[in-house]
Amino acid sequence: MRTNQTKMFKEFDATELYCSRCKRSVPVRKRLLLILQEGDKYEYLCAFCSGSVGTKMDRHEKPGKLII
Ligand SMILES: [Zn+2]
């Protein structure tokens, strides 16, 4: 039973991104940044230092176009 491990990471992406502070690829947390008409903008935060390592737009209407 490992269901509790993801309680804070409802939309956790398995992606690892490069963190310039940690100087390595790190697991990221996804934080909702903006809610726009065309979609939600998320920020990825380093799981270790909580620094921003990137943003992503999740579009509501037209799935299939991921911008990383
Ligand atoms: Zn970091």
Describe the structure in your own words.
The chain is mostly beta strands. The chain has one domain (3-59). Helix content is 0%, strand content 47%. It has no helices and four strands. The chain has strands at residues 16-19, 24-35, 39-46, 52-59. Strands 1-2-3-4 form a four-stranded antiparallel beta sheet, with no helix packed on it.
Adjacency order of strands in the biggest sheet? 1-2-3-4
N-to-C CA distance: 32 Å
Outline the biggest β-sheet: 4 strands, antiparallel
Please, how many domains?
1
Return the structural class: mainly beta
What small molecules are bound in this structure?
Answer: zinc ion
Q: Name the beta content range.
A: over 45%
- Count of runs of 4 or more consecutive helical residues: 0
Q: Taking all residues together, what is the mean pLDDT?
A: 80
* Quaternary form: single chain
**Number of DSSP E strands:** 4
Radius of gyration: 13 Å
Low-confidence stretches: none
- DSSP helix fraction: under 10%
Q: Secondary-structure element sequence?
A: EEEE
Q: Report the principal-axis shape.
A: elongated
Short précis:
The chain is mainly beta and 68 residues long. The protein has one domain.
